[in-house]
């Protein structure tokens, strides 16, 4: 049975997006003769040579008059392997909101680049928004290759350019394909114009890209949507209905119902219509019969007792503002719809506004207008049960609604909780100290060069009479973290402890330089959040060294051992590494020497503490 | 799951529709499901039944009756409602004509399709429905491709394509003011072929018109129209008898059929794979009037 792939297509005006979609629909036989006849009639009217396949995807009349696409439109086609849902979004600067909408459910983004123009500011914005919305597969279609004589050089330059930019984003899978949407080369059929291109056409890629592991299959999450009343025997139970948002839930599992915190067991699990299920995973709809009579209601969340989401009413989130009828300002109250829970939320503060073209964070901003993205702190009236958006697209997302107009005004992606623990006021205040401290956090694969760069930075700071202390992950594992292993939980704890120690050091007016693999984004984000909270500067540095280079260096022989099966859970080999989404600095140690990299860091550090 | 460990797409589409049904039942006071007995509304009702199992469907169904129906479809509609134990409401266009709320145009190609809007909005107001499920699919027509799954209608029942709420993830904003209502389209992401595959897999019974049968038809403007239902005054077309089936069953005076030998869902699916026209292009006279016709009607409150 074939599966479902949801795609979002983006491109700047005239890059050929509509032509590409028209071509996909046309060549995949999803266009009917009467639609084609329309297109042909218009071609004759306008006296054009080739039929304008873009017309196949053109929707509302006002747009047809203006000759532009202004909203998200959905198209469908299928092949024996897959059914495709295409969310077609326009690429104008003012329509970030449409792309955010289309991208929110997509597995894959098709990004159009005009071969003559190369990677524009808009292309970067598109890639950034796709990664922000958690799309793991980006396919860059370098279009109009016919107009650059199918130049391999041109194609390679564009790809290199794009990859360079995307390296700073969270995109595990990036594919570039040279195409001509107008003539059809490499769209559905392989073209003959680019013998140098070894990959497959766009459609083949769409048919085979693996998406099964994109959903979170680890953390079981079932937001309760609807509770059914007891029926005739044998169905005399109150059923908890909902859509699985994460993990694999099994019949018989012990579960906890949040926020009340009662534990029980899944007595039986049913699919739509009463099919008995033994296991369910996202995005299946299920009905649970629980072993105990509990007071469960819409808005509750069912999960495993040993793996619970955050439960708090104070959180940070990235927001995209979706309306031009108002702007977001701190202190304002909205209705928040999160999973199946609806409550009110007050914007405590705007942390920063993000420039979607340069990724610069403007920390002086305190409003968000239409199409602007920024991070805010929210306080909700009832607590929410959530994960970070990076971990779970369903339990990590929400919308804000204007209470008066009922309009959906913002899309939110949760970055983490902000803690509410009140601190004992320190006896000596930070301003009274002689020097200022901060944390420099180097993350990257084993053997990426973190420790070397950290050491050089330490020496440089000492030369400048700035107190500094280097916290090296390997060394900490002999003492502070000697009791921790390499499970996800232990790694998280390792990062948390190291983060806390760094914070104390920074608070004491010393620069803490941390060299730690710290493979999981969420863990690092928490450290950043806690620094933000404490008002201490935090510099996330991504030591971006390709796996192959790390493996060839292998100073401690770890990769060799891992490949030989002598050790397991080595980051990069059999444990994932999640590169930072918006590192403050990315260092490429494959092509630069450690002294230069340290000098670059030194400048950034001095800017922050002087 | 397939070899790639992915959910079969029909299961995914069904899960999405089930989610939508449950969401509406949990958050709206008075939902209703539009039900004509046609294939889309049969699939919709079938999914609704599955969504609320083991409980009965927690809302009534409504048929807007143009008075120009195929009798077998009406019989089928009544039988299904009785079998599933759902409450069937019927809003009659004739009542609105009799009360003078609709003036029947005197032009020969007068179909009552467009007049349904008045009747539908009247019933929605009378019954204070706040959510109305429709079986429309985005693949049917260009203007539908941008329709949201939750689509707000103002107090006059009108749709504003410029003022649609952004719809993200699986979060549906169903908030509305008194007097407004939401049109909800759980099958938005299904195509005609998906509908038929689901009919096959779930063994959903449909009116016999959907399968090949012999019928007297007339040929007009390249369409095959049922005889004598679609005959206009002064029309002297001679009927011929052909093996045909309907792809939609709307108003009998304006729904065309297609030549077909498909007697089973499987055969229909095979036929669709060879088909060269859209469902509406092939079968609805009134959709051909103008390119932007559907968009105009939707603004007015049509489905
Ligand atoms: N030469 C050439 N022209 C193309 C190609 N793809 C699209 N175009 C033309 O570029 C123009 C804009 O295409 P369109 O699909 O409307 O762009 P959109 O704004 O991205 O949807 C049209 O005139 C197309 O015919 C291509 O591969 N080669």
Can I get a quick summary?
Chain A is an alpha/beta fold.
Give an account of the 3D structure.
The complex is a heterodimer of chains A (610) and B (303). By secondary structure, chain A is α/β, with parallel strands linked by helices. Chain A has 14 helices and 29 strands. Helix content of chain A is 25%, strand content 28%. Chain B is globular, with a radius of gyration of 19 Å. Residues 284-295 of chain B have low confidence and may be disordered. At the A-B interface, helix 2, strand 2, strand 3, helix 4 and strand 9 of A face helix 1 and helix 2 of B. Guanosine-5'-diphosphate binds at residues 11, 13-19, 54, 112, 143-144, 146-147, 180-182 of chain A.
SSE topology sketch:
The complex is a heterodimer of chains A (610) and B (303).
Chain A lengths: L2 E8 L6 H11 L5 H14 L14 H6 L6 E6 L3 E7 L7 H8 L4 E7 L6 H12 L4 E7 L8 H15 L6 E6 L23 H7 L13 E2 L2 E3 L10 E5 L5 E2 L3 E5 L3 E9 L8 E2 L4 E6 L10 E3 L6 E12 L6 E2 L3 E6 L2 E14 L6 E2 L4 E2 L4 E14 L10 E5 L6 E10 L20 E6 L6 H14 L4 E5 H4 L11 H20 L3 E5 L5 H14 L3 E6 L3 H7 L4 H6 L21 E3 L6 H16 L1
Parallel strand pairs in A: 1-3, 1-4, 4-5, 5-6, 25-27, 25-28, 26-27, 28-29
Antiparallel strand pairs in A: 2-3, 7-15, 8-9, 9-14, 10-13, 11-12, 11-15, 12-14, 16-22, 16-24, 17-21, 18-19, 18-23, 19-20, 19-22, 23-24
Helix pairs in contact in A: 8-14, 10-11
Chain B lengths: L8 H19 L3 E4 L4 H14 L8 E5 L5 H14 L3 E5 H6 L17 H12 L3 E3 L16 E4 L27 E4 L7 H10 L11 E8 L2 E4 L13 E7 L10 E3 L5 H10 L4 H5 L9 H8 L3
Parallel strand pairs in B: 1-2, 1-4, 2-3, 4-6
Antiparallel strand pairs in B: 5-6, 7-8, 7-9, 9-10
Helix pairs in contact in B: 1-2, 6-7
The complex binds guanosine-5'-diphosphate.
């Amino acid at each position: 049975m074939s599966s479902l792939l949801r795609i979002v297509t983006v491109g700047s005006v005239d890059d050929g997006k509509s032509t590409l979609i028209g071509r996909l629909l046309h060549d995949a036989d999803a266009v009917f003769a009467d639609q084609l006849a329309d297109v042909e009639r218009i071609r004759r009217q306008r006296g054009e040579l080739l039929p304008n396949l873009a017309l196949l995807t053109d929707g509302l009349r006002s747009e047809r008059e203006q000759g532009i696409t202004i909203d998200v439109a959905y198209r469908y086609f299928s092949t024996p392997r897959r059914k495709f849902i295409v969310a077609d979004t326009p690429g104008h600067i003012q329509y970030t909101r449409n792309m955010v909408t289309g991208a929110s459910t997509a597995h894959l983004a098709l990004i159009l680049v005009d071969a003559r123009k190369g990677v524009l500011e808009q292309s970067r914005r598109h890639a950034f928004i796709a990664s922000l919305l958690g799309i793991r597969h980006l396919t860059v279609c370098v279009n109009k290759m016919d107009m650059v004589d199918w130049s391999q050089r041109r194609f390679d330059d564009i790809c290199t350019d794009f990859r360079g930019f995307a390296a700073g984003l969270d995109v595990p899978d990036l594919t570039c394909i040279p195409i001509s949407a107008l003539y059809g080369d490499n769209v559905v059929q392989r073209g003959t114009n680019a013998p140098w291109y070894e990959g497959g056409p766009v459609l083949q890629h769409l048919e085979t890209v693996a998406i099964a592991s994109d959903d979170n299959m680890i953390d079981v999450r079932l937001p309760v949507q609807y509770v059914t009343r007891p029926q005739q025997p044998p169905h005399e139970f109150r059923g908890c209905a909902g859509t699985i948002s994460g993990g694999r839930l099994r019949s018989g599992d012990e579960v906890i119902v949040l926020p009340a915190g009662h534990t029980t067991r899944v007595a039986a699990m049913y699919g739509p219509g009463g099919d008995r299920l033994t296991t369910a995973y996202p995005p299946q709809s299920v009905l649970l019969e629980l072993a105990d009579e509990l007071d469960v209601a819409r808005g509750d969340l069912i999960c495993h007792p040993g793996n619970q989401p955050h439960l708090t009413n104070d959180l940070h989130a990235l927001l995209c503002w979706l309306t031009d009828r108002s702007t977001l300002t701190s202190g304002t109250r909205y209705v928040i719809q999160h999973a199946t829970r609806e409550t009110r939320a007050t914007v405590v503060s705007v942390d920063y506004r993000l420039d979607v073209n340069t990724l610069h964070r403007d920390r002086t901003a305190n409003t968000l207008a239409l199409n602007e993205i920024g991070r805010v702190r929210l306080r909700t009236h009832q607590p929410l049960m959530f994960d970070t958006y990076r971990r779970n697209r369903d339990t990590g997302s929400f919308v804000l609604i204007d209470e008066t107009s009922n309009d959906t005004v913002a899309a939110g992606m949760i970055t983490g909780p902000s803690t509410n623990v009140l601190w004992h006021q320190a006896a000596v205040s930070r301003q009274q100290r002689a020097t200022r401290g901060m944390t420099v956090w180097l993350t990257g694969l084993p053997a990426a060069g973190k420790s070397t760069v950290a050491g050089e930075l330490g020496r440089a700071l000492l030369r400048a009479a700035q107190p500094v202390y280097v916290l090296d992950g390997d060394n900490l594992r002999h003492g502070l973290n000697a009791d921790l292993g390499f499970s996800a939980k232990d790694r998280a704890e390792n990062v948390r402890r190291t983060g806390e120690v760094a914070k104390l050091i920074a608070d004491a007016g010393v620069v803490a330089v941390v060299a730690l693999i710290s493979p999981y984004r969420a863990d690092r984000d928490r450290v950043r959040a806690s620094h933000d909270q404490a008002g201490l500067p935090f510099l996330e540095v991504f030591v971006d060294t390709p796996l192959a280079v790390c493996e060839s260096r292998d100073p401690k022989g770890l990769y060799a051992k891992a490949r030989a099966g002598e050790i397991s859970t080595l980051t990069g080999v059999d444990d994932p590494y999640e590169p930072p989404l918006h590192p403050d600095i990315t260092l490429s140690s494959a092509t630069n020497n450690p002294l230069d990299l340290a000098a670059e860091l030194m400048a950034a550090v001095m800017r922050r503490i002087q | 799951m397939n070899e790639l460990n992915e959910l079969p797409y029909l299961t995914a589409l069904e899960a999405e529709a089930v989610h939508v049904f449950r969401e509406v039942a949990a958050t709206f006071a008075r939902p209703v499901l539009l039900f004509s007995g046609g294939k889309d509304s049969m699939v919709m009702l079938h999914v609704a039944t599955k969504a609320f199992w083991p409980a009965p469907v927690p809302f009534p169904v409504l048929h807007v009756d143009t008075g120009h129906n195929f009798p077998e479809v009406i019989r089928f509609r009544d039988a299904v409602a009785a079998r599933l134990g759902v409450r069937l409401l019927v809003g009659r266009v004739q009542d609105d004509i009799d009360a003078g709320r609709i003036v029947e145009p005197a032009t020969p190609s007068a179909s009552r399709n467009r007049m349904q809007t008045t009747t539908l909005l009247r019933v929605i107001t009378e019954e204070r429905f706040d959510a109305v499920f429709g079986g429309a699919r985005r693949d049917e027509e260009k203007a539908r491709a941008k329709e949201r799954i939750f689509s707000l209608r103002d107090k006059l029942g009108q749709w504003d394509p410029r003022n649609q709420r952004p719809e993200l993830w699986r979060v549906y904003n169903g908030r509305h003011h008194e007097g407004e209502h939401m049109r909800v389209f759980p099958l938005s992401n299904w195509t005609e072929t998906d509908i038929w595959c689901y009919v096959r897999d779930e063994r959903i019974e449909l009116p016999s018109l959907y399968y090949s049968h012999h019928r007297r038809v007339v040929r007009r403007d390249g369409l095959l129209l049922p005889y004598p239902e679609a005959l206009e005054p002064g029309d002297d077309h001679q009927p011929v008898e052909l093996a045909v089936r309907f792809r939609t069953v709307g108003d009998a005076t304006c729904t065309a059929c297609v030549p077909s030998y498909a007697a089973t869902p499987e055969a229909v699916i095979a036929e669709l794979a060879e088909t060269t026209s859209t469902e509406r292009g092939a079968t609805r006279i009134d959709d051909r009037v103008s390119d932007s016709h559907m968009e105009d009607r939707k603004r007015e409150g049509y489905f």
